[in-house]
Write a structure and sequence with these properties.
The complex is a heterodimer. By secondary structure, chain A is α/β, with parallel strands linked by helices. Helices cover about 45% and strands about 15% of the residues of chain A. Chain A has two domains: about 190 residues, 3-Layer(aba) Sandwich (Rossmann fold), CATH 3.40.50; about 140 residues, 3-Layer(aba) Sandwich (Rossmann fold), CATH 3.40.50. Chain A has a five-stranded parallel beta sheet, sandwiched between helices. A four-stranded parallel beta sheet of chain A has the order 7-6-8-9, with helices on both faces. In chain A, strands 10-13-14 form a three-stranded antiparallel beta sheet. In chain A, helix 2 packs parallel to helix 12 and helix 3 runs parallel beside helix 4. The radius of gyration of chain A is 23 Å and the shape is globular. The relative contact order of chain A is 0.12. Chain B is an all-alpha fold. Chain B has a single domain, classed as ABC transporter involved in vitamin B12 uptake, BtuC (Orthogonal Bundle). Helices cover about 75% and strands about 0% of the residues of chain B. A two-stranded antiparallel ribbon of chain B has the order 1-2. In chain B, a hairpin with a 5-residue loop joins strand 1 and strand 2. The longest helix of chain B is centred in the first third of the chain and has 33 residues. The chains are: A alpha/beta, B mainly alpha. At the A-B interface, helix 2, strand 7, helix 8, helix 9 and helix 10 of A face helix 1, strand 2, helix 8, helix 9 and helix 10 of B.
Chain lengths: ~400, ~300
């Protein structure tokens, strides 16, 4: 009896070795980590960026992977919370051997993860809006300790603000009110507008704050309106985007409303409804792909990608899907070039030149870990549940 | 827009927001009076009211008025289930244990809502359009503000009638004053508690429903409103109904006038500073008389 058992085990082992092992070997996937805000206040951004990355990875795998090896994403959820972000990252890194990281979504979570990433030396392409993740030294005492392994795909917030101010001055808007949510992103916007507006001859006549969860912002708007402004910029993502648009209609304020570069998302129409009509904002070209001139080098790429996105997820992508897609494609290109080696992938990302993405044309260098410029940004206008390209 | 117009606008805004806070505060008070606990699941009643309304009106295209009452009844039922289930069967009847239980329940409800509806904020159509109405004095409102005001006043009047004139209402007040004595004279304290949870559920839902067209709604929209309503209840005197109205209106006005006249950045800080000041001077709240009489 004992002997029989032994034989069965030996045969089973032999069979599994002969059949399973070579199969396993050829399919050993290359792993990358995807850390997104899948829940919490930025969940609508995080989930669509996750979808964007999934689409990019599917695309590569359908074409046979990288040198015959499939790509696999190991996911972590930051819960839109800096502490939870670091925990999610550590959990992924302890259980899996990843060659690169994509994400996270929010600037706060990115800042929390940055130090750890630099210490572990893993190339990371972030989606967070704030420029501070590239600009702030890692060690406060050493101004030269710049991040080496951290990159970000969204264009710089300062450029987005500059684009609005440029548009305003071109259209005779000189005297504006600035409305910002009283947290990291909004305050970053306030600092930027104070630098950018004077460059284009625009005066910030009033600046008012609100809480991200406020249900009524008429008091602030009344105060701004009393200054007789001829344009209003609102710097926030989330329900307040819609509340501000509604409150402006309610108060009968005629000054045009501009919102931030995160507003060009289907969620804008959900929160603003009809009041959203006519609101202008800077955006990536992904939401107005079919309106681009044929000479635009990004046009074909964007249209193809949006079509694939639509087919897979059954809804239109928002402006921030572009950041997820670009981060994923650039990292994938780097892995193709450098192989599954963290340091070589980092170098390959840093040498990305003239890459035509959804958000613009990336020219990454050791000095600029973002690589986009102001000319990659377009101004769009909310029109009938969709977006119209202005310039 | 001259200064008097601005002031008028701040006051009208403050009153509307205050009305919402008052309804929420009322929900806290009813459960407190029946059981002595603070029900933190009240926040979730607000979110659920808004989300039920969204599902019925936007997703299932049900008539607005019918949706209003179904949402209200739905949340009232959830309130009742909370009482019949966990609250009634809790091993310990210590107040602090029950309060923690409601915190847990609120997490469960919020998590479930997140799974059902996702995390996006969604809009609900206004009850009768969004064309601005110009008031005397230069303030502008939308029709929804009138609805909020009218419904709040109606709810308050109905509550007043219920607690002062009906047997059930009197029984609830008796329980509030002294549970044991109420039980001794034949009032079913269990039934009163059940009723208070269903009632609070309905009130929370009303707040969530009437504010949704203005603020949009999501699975966790009630957290902020719930906290402000809680603050209003404390400001007015916890457990006191007239206090809830007063507390709500004062808090709403403070926020709006604070943002308009002093600084929008410290809007909440100003409101809560006044709240602390009142509690220093009169720890039972503006209308509170201490523990002996809570109604």
């Amino acid at each position: 009896m004992k002997k029989k058992c032994f034989m069965v085990v030996v045969v089973a082992l032999a069979v599994s070795f002969l059949m399973g092992a070579p199969f396993c070997y050829s399919a050993e996937p290359i792993k990358i980590a995807g850390i997104f805000a899948l829940t919490g206040r930025a969940a609508h951004i995080g989930t669509s960026q996750r979808d964007a990355v999934i689409l990019a990875i599917d695309d590569v795998n359908q074409k046979g992977g990288i040198n015959g090896r499939m790509l696999e994403m190991v996911m972590g959820d930051t819960e839109s919370n800096p502490t939870k972000a670091v925990m999610a990252l550590k959990k992924v890194l302890e259980s899996q051997d990843v060659v690169a990281i994509i994400g996270p979504t929010l600037t706060g979570t990115a800042m929390a993860m940055r130090g750890f990433i630099e210490k572990e030396k893993i190339p990371t392409f972030m989606h967070s809006g704030g420029d501070v993740i590239l600009k702030a030294p890692l060690d406060k005492k050493d101004p030269n300790s710049m991040p080496k392994w951290t990159f970000k795909s969204p264009y710089k917030a300062a450029d987005a603000m500059g684009k609005i101010c440029q548009y305003m001055s071109k259209h005779g808007i000189k005297n504006i009110g600035f409305l910002y949510s009283n947290e990291g992103f909004g305050k970053d916007g306030l600092r930027n507008v104070m630098v950018q507006a004077p460059k284009y001859g625009v005066t910030v006549a009033a600046q008012e704050a609100f809480q991200p969860r406020d249900i009524d912002i008429t008091a602030q708007l009344t105060r701004i309106n009393a200054k007789n402004v001829d344009g209003i910029i609102a710097w926030t993502v989330g329900p307040a985007m819609g509340i501000i648009a509604k409150n402006i209609k309610q108060l009968g304020i005629k000054a045009p409303l501009f919102e931030c570069h995160g507003a060009g998302d289907p969620i804008f129409w959900k929160v603003a409804g009809e009041a959203g009509e006519g609101v202008m904002m800077p955006s990536t070209k992904i939401v107005v792909g079919d309106q681009l001139p044929d000479t635009d080098v990004q046009k074909k790429k964007i249209i193809d990608y949006v079509k694939a996105y639509n087919e897979k997820f059954k809804h239109e992508p928002g402006t921030m899907v572009a950041y997820g897609a670009d981060a994923a494609f650039i990292v994938i290109e780097a892995i193709k070039k450098a192989g599954p080696d963290r340091a070589k992938i980092r170098d390959a990302i840093e040498n990305t030149k003239g890459y035509v993405g959804m958000s613009g044309i990336y020219n990454i260098s050791p000095q600029d870990h973002n690589g986009l410029s102001m000319k990659d940004i377009v101004m769009i206008k909310a029109t009938k549940g969709s977006w119209k390209l202005l310039e | 827009m001259d200064f008097s117009q601005q002031i008028a606008q701040y006051i009208v805004t403050g009153l509307t927001i205050g009305a919402i806070y008052a309804i929420v505060a009322m929900g806290f008070n009813i459960i407190h009076n029946a059981t002595g606990i603070v029900n933190f699941a009240q926040c979730e009643f607000i979110s659920l009211g808004g989300m039920f309304m969204y599902s019925l009106v936007v997703l299932f295209k049900v008539n607005l008025i019918i949706s209003f009452f179904i949402s209200m009844a739905g949340v009232a039922l959830i309130g009742a289930l909370i009482e019949i289930g966990p609250i009634r069967h809790a091993r310990s009847k210590e107040i602090i244990v029950l309060i923690f239980l409601t915190i847990g329940l609120s997490e469960v409800l919020r998590g479930t809502a997140q799974e059902v509806w996702g995390t996006d904020n969604v809009g609900v159509p206004a009850f009768s359009g969004e064309n601005p109405i110009h008031l005397l004095g230069g303030a502008t409102i939308v029709p929804q503000h009138i609805w909020i005001f009218a419904i709040t006043v109606l709810v308050m009047l109905m509550l007043h009638y219920f607690f002062k004139k009906t047997l059930m209402g009197k029984a609830m007040r008796a329980t509030a004053v002294n549970r044991r004595a109420a039980a001794l004279v034949g009032i079913s304290v269990n039934r009163i508690t059940l009723f208070s949870f269903a009632f609070s559920g309905a009130l929370g839902a009303v707040a969530g429903i009437i504010i949704a067209p203005i603020s949009t709604t999501s699975y966790d929209t009630g957290i902020m409103l719930g906290l402000k309503g809680f603050a209003a209840a404390i400001l007015g005197g916890y457990g006191n109904f007239a206090g809830a109205i007063l507390g709500g209106v004062i808090l709403g006005l403070l926020e709006s006038l604070g943002a308009g006249l002093v600084s929008s950045q410290y809007k909440d800080a100003i409101a809560f500073f006044i709240l602390l000041l009142v509690l220093f001077l009169k720890p039972t709240g503006i209308m509170g008389y201490g523990e002996a009489e809570r109604v």
